[in-house]
Amino acid sequence: MQYFSKKKLILPEGYFVNSSQIPLAKEVNKLLSNCGCETFPIKSLSKAIQQSNFFFTIQNEFKNKLYGFVRVTSDRGLNANLWNLSAVPGINQQLYYSMLINLTLEKINREMPGCSISVQAPESSFKSLEESGFILDPNGIRVMGYKL
Question: Is 139 a residue whose pLDDT tops 80?
Answer without folding.
Answer: no
